[in-house]
Each structure stands twice: as structure tokens, then as C-alpha cells.
TrEMBL record, chains A, B:
Gene Ontology terms for molecular function: DNA-binding transcription factor activity; transcription cis-regulatory region binding
Organism: Umezawaea tangerina
DNA-binding region: 35-54
The keyword DNA-binding is assigned to this record: yes
Signal peptide as annotated in the record: none
Protein name: TetR family transcriptional regulator
PROSITE patterns in UniProt: HTH_TETR_2
Presence of keyword Cytoplasm: no
Keyword list, A-Z: DNA-binding, Transcription, Transcription regulation
DNA sequence: TGCCAAGTGGAGGAATCCTCCATATTTTAA
DNA sequence: TTAAAATATGGAGGATTCCTCCACTTGGCA
């Protein structure tokens, strides 16, 4: 790990993936506070190896759910092709909230991912997410269905926060309603 | 602690208050993960006493910030007397978000407080908060500035979530914007 | 093939958790 | 007022978890 840009050695990459895979199971089963040697054990890896790849619990949790971001963002084009921007944003945000809220540790992971100063590993996911929301918002602005000046980060923060706070109580109805409020709150105000 | 309804013995009440006072300082200084014996030490109390009064960390943290809820809710009448319901709700929500977001562990405490199945100690604060928001929402509904059927719990969840996710980054501007979106999202839709 | 940078495992000291129970204090009632 | 009963206390200590350190192993390159 001298040069952060150098690709991992083949065995190291394999172990890293094993850790992520194991952590996915163990986090789902035990929650975010699971002892990290459970993860190491299940991955068939020494505890030091786990710590080398993921120096903090936060980075491990973020690492586990990183791969869930892209598929979510991939739906963007289809949505925009199929419906007007306001409905597209609503639909996308509802999917986001449902999906993020559906796994016990995922809101925590997404919190790291959207944080402006999160760990370096989450950077690509951070950018992807922000780009996606920004695109939806700007498209709606240009179409006149949203007022100008809405800050995409605000939406990400509000959605992620909702998932953090609700801990899967009442979902998905409550999530749907909150998303609706946020999106309706972006429409132009008839003065 | 046999009968939960029986009032505490005088010395026990004094120690409980000392614990809350100490925890307030220590949590602010060290964050939510502070070792609990630091709290006990600062309160001049044995660790067992702390555990007897607050069996879980969650209950301790909630207990510390319980007393901040009432003052916030006390402003309700003045607000409603001074301005229309939509502005009153906006103002109140902004105060809430600013205040809850201003202390490192308070969002966590409020998460317990608003949870539908939180610990028993938080019940009065829970009810007070819900009553306050409900009153603001219903007043606006009757005045026709909000559409019907807005669920007050949704607002509490969204505000608390925002505080949890944002960790005091960007506050207070971002908080103000998110509150505005939520409140505007409650207005009647001109179809 | 042999070298070395990169990667590994797990022992073990330090920190923290949380229960248990002998002791101390308050309250009650006679 | 006093003594018994009810309540509350402190901190020792076993169990758990954290996380670093370093002697050893392995993959990649010349």
C-alpha cells in the first residue's frame, strides 16, 4: 500500500473482495456494531488484513454498499426517456429511499458516501450520485417544472437522513410521502 | 427500581441528575462513543449506578437532551399568534433543525425521542413534540395553506433525519433550504 | 530461477463493557 | 426515636473487543 494509485496484487484483490462479501452477510445479520473479527473469520482472513484494507469501520461499511450505487444511477436515462422530469425525479428518489432503507447498514454507508469530505474510496460513488441527482434537477428546471436554484446536495442529504432516522419503520409509505413533499417543494411558486 | 411508578429515593434522584449533567458535558466534548466510565467518573458516581439509571447508551443520550424539547415547543403559541400558519411552521422547523443540529449528540437523542417505539423515558417528550407539530400542521390545513392529509410524523422524521445525516456540515443554510422544500411541499397543488 | 516489494496472520497489550454482590443510605412504621 | 425493610451504591473483575506490531509468506518481475 505504498503508492495508493498502484493496483492491488492479485491475492490482495481477492482477499479484499472476500472481506466485502463476508461483511455484507455479517452486517446484515448482526448490524453495524458487529465485532470485526467476525467479519475476518467469515472471510477466511486475518484481522490485520481486514484492517489494512479498511482502516475504519466506516470505510468497511461504505465499501460493502458501494456497488449498489451504480445500478441505481443506471436507471436515470430510462426514467427521463419515459416520463417528465418531475415524475422521473419522484420515481428515482422513491427507489433510492426504498433501496437504501431496505438494508440495515446501508443508510450509514450512504451517509459516508454523500458526505462532502468522506473517505477517498467513496469518491466515485459520491460523484456518480451527485451527477445523477443534479441531472434530474436541472432537467426539471429547464422544463420549468422545478424552480431555479434547487441544490441537489440538499435532496441527497434529506433522503439519506430520512433513511437514517426511520430505520425501516413504516417504510415504504412514509418514504413515499416524504419524497413527494420534497419534490412538490421544488415546484415553481405561483406568487 | 421494583415499581417503575414509585418516585426515586432522594439520593437516587440527586445522583441521576448528576449523571445527566456530567453526560451533557462529556458527550459534547467526546462525542457519542465516549466510554461510559468517563461519565460516571465526572458525575462522581459508580459505574453501576450509571447503568442502573440508564441501562443503555441510547437511553442516557436521550435522557441528556430530554429537557431541550419543552422550551422548543413552548414557542408554539407565540409563533401562531404572530404569523400565519405556514410561516409559523417554517420558523418553528428551522429553529428545530438549527437547535437539534447544533449539538453533536442531539440528533441521536431526538431519533430515540421521535421513534414510535422508543424507550419509556422519552414518552413525554415524544408526545409533546408530536402534539406541537400536529397543531401547526392542522392549523395550516384549516387555514387552507396546507393540503389535507399531511402526516406530522413525516415532518419529524424528515427533520431529524436531516440533522442525523448532515452532522453540522453546511448548517444552517442547508437546513433552511430543506425545511423550505418540505413546507412548500405541503401546500395545496393547483391542478 | 531468484529476488524483493507487497501482503499476511494472529498474538497480545490496552481499552471498554457490564454484572454481581457486600455494603451503605433512606424510608417506613411501630 | 429506633430498628427493620426497602432501596440504592460502588467498584472489582471476567469477558469482549479493539487494533498494532512484526516475523513470515507470496506474487510479480528481470
Amino acid at each position: 500500500m505504498a503508492d495508493p494509485a498502484r493496483p492491488l496484487r492479485a491475492d490482495a484483490r481477492r482477499k479484499r473482495e472476500a472481506i466485502v462479501e463476508a461483511a455484507k452477510d455479517v452486517l446484515a445479520e448482526w448490524g453495524a456494531d458487529v465485532p470485526l473479527d467476525h467479519v475476518a473469520k467469515r472471510a477466511g482472513v486475518g484481522i490485520a488484513t481486514l484492517y489494512r484494507h479498511f482502516p475504519t469501520r466506516e470505510e468497511l461499511i461504505a465499501g460493502v454498499y458501494l456497488s449498489e450505487i451504480d445500478p441505481l444511477c443506471d436507471t436515470l436515462d430510462d426514467l427521463l426517456a419515459a416520463m417528465p422530469a418531475d415524475r422521473a425525479l419522484t420515481t428515482w428518489m422513491r427507489r433510492f429511499v426504498r433501496h437504501v432503507g431496505s438494508k440495515p447498514c446501508m443508510p450509514l454507508a450512504v451517509k459516508s458516501i454523500i458526505a462532502p469530505d468522506g473517505p477517498a474510496v467513496v469518491r466515485p460513488a459520491h460523484d456518480r450520485l451527485l451527477t445523477t441527482v443534479t441531472h434530474l434537477v436541472r432537467t426539471g428546471e429547464r422544463a420549468g417544472v422545478f424552480r431555479e436554484g434547487v441544490v441537489p446536495e440538499d435532496l441527497l442529504m434529506a433522503m439519506t437522513g430520512f433513511c437514517l432516522a426511520s430505520d425501516r419503520t413504516d417504510l415504504p409509505d412514509q418514504g413515499d410521502r416524504v419524497v413527494l413533499m420534497l419534490v412538490d417543494g421544488m415546484r415553481p411558486r405561483e406568487v
